[in-house]
Design goal:
- By secondary structure, the chain is α/β, with parallel strands linked by helices.
- It has 3 domains: 78 residues, Alpha-Beta Plaits, CATH 3.30.70.20; 183 residues, 3-Layer(aba) Sandwich (Rossmann fold), CATH 3.40.50.720; 198 residues, 3-Layer(bba) Sandwich (FAD/NAD(P)-binding domain).
- Helices cover 23% and strands 21% of the residues.
- The longest helix has 18 residues.
- Bound molecules: flavin-adenine dinucleotide, NADP nicotinamide-adenine-dinucleotide phosphate and iron/sulfur cluster (2 copies).
- The site of one iron/sulfur cluster has 15 residues, from loops.
Amino acid sequence: MPHVVTQSCCSDASCVYTCPVNCIHPTPDEPDFLSAEMLYIDPAACVDCGACVSACPVGAIKPHTRLGESEQDFRAVNADFYRGERDRPLLAPVVPPLRVRERARPPRVAVVGSGPAAMYTADEILTIPGATVSMFERLPEPHGLARYGVAPDHRRTRQISDQFDTITEQDGLALFLGVEIGSHVTHEQLLDHHDAVVYAVGAATDRRLDIPGAGLPGTASATEFVAWYNGHPDFADRTFVLSHQRAVVIGNGNVALDVARILTVDPDTLAGTDIAPAALDALRGSRIEEVVVAGRRGPAQSAFTLPELLGLRDTPGVELFVQPDELDLDTAADAKLEVLRGLRPRACPSRRIHLRYLLSPARITGRDHVEAVEFERNELIATADGDVRVKPTGALEVLDAGLVLTSIGYRGRALPGLPFDQATGTVPHRGGRVIDPDTGHPVPGTYVAGWIKRGPTGFIGTNKSCARETVTALVDDLNAGRLATPAAAAPGELPNLLPGLKSR
Ligand SMILES: Cc1cc2nc3c(=O)[nH]c(=O)nc-3n(C[C@H](O)[C@H](O)[C@H](O)COP(=O)(O)OP(=O)(O)OC[C@H]3O[C@@H](n4cnc5c(N)ncnc54)[C@H](O)[C@@H]3O)c2cc1C
Ligand SMILES: NC(=O)c1ccc[n+]([C@@H]2O[C@H](COP(=O)([O-])OP(=O)(O)OC[C@H]3O[C@@H](n4cnc5c(N)ncnc54)[C@H](OP(=O)(O)O)[C@@H]3O)[C@@H](O)[C@H]2O)c1
Ligand code: SF4
Ligand code: SF4
């Protein structure tokens, strides 16, 4: 009776270190960890001890006898990962504790942001005896995209907030909500009160699609739509046109699948979740019958992950559809393609999601409101390095729509006083130390973690090993005497920075 990792896995690898036979992979030290879509249990090696079940913060691991109907496919998903030979040591790698030199004072660290990267950073720092963390969040609620990004119907994934609450309840951590660094408090002020500052501010904005008509009423980014249905205070007043029978989503990553699902699922199934009440009301009145998710490459290059595709396929009342001619583009054996090839029409679906391929958006048209999207049709060209790129064929295809959401990725924002790489939308760094691009030297006492460091990719748990790398660099600098002593003596003086600054 092997155990099985299922859809809500957020790749934080907590299970890896509890397994007595090291049968959960890839582990964070293995080369394929960052590209893996989840972690997998080797059914041939699992001894069914159940230790991993309680270690998982999102309830993703189950004995195979307790899998629900929609989770059955995950048995094969786990087993398939071990089809080839995989060398592994008898025991999982041991993560050495962070060691602060005996004479060094316990560090006092400011962490900016309260999303996954900030939480994992704080948790690492607080393993150092006597260390303290002041965490600053611009919003009135903590947890970043774990609160304002993860879809409301992904209830198990949202349970990660319980683990984050446990982190913030630790002695030594003070959480300041509603404080924006760079506007209410400056970087220099933070350094006056702390040995170091770690920026874990995520990627707050979205990549813009630069085509004619992109700003027409009825167009929006998936970033805005997601923030709206999750009750993000900056987007509470947004409205979206749900009166046309078709919506088009441009891009086919996991965010695109989230928004397509929220637009098509029976709103009654969202009642009782954390969805914003105004969004639920609007969705109840929606006339959308079909959502087209348009990718510019082929089905084998779909940016969504297999677990999310399986979840979408099994959404009650929603038919998922791919045109046979677009599916025939690739004959390779591939798990995602197999799922797409196995799609069957649903009896009386109330709504439909149509996955389209080889379509690059060229123009959005309409007089004073979106009426259609014009796509240029592509063909696939294999590149010398084994990747696939697209070449426009010159043929055009027009899809009528009343709502067009661009879901082509998030993007980091520059912070006052910090270097910023406009090309990648990230802060330049080496191993988490912020680097001044003019001198090539580290900016003293300044670090980054999470999406502002790596760019907007990866799961909640991916930020854990990312934060660990950053805190290791910080502790090395502390031990080597490279951190300046803060000018202000006591952390208790911190509230003086802002009248009414209160920690939670
Ligand atoms: C729509 C969406 C859905 C997702 N769903 C899943 C999922 O189901 N499962 C999964 O594993 N992963 C999911 N992810 C990925 C996951 O959310 C990210 O990997 C993770 O949130 C990135 O963490 P972060 O801490 O770097 O950034 P964020 O989560 O964005 O946190 C950054 C925080 O910093 C705060 N901040 C920004 N600037 C300042 C400032 N100047 N001062 C103070 N505070 C500031 C922000 O308000 C925010 O709270 C999803 C991502 C998106 C976009
Ligand atoms: N449930 C979950 O676990 C979950 C949920 C949501 C998000 N996430 C994670 O969060 C990260 C961000 O997700 P995401 O969906 O925003 O990003 P993403 O996975 O990078 O997908 C971006 C999509 O936009 C397309 N695109 C980019 N530029 C384009 C352009 N100019 N024109 C047309 N299409 C364009 C990409 O196409 P190409 O592939 O051709 O470049 C791709 O389809 C991902 O790592 C994701 O896995 C996880
Ligand atoms: S049940 Fe035990 S042996 Fe199996 S994967 Fe989990 S921890 Fe490892
Ligand atoms: S969420 Fe973490 S603990 Fe749970 S299965 Fe995935 S990697 Fe393991």
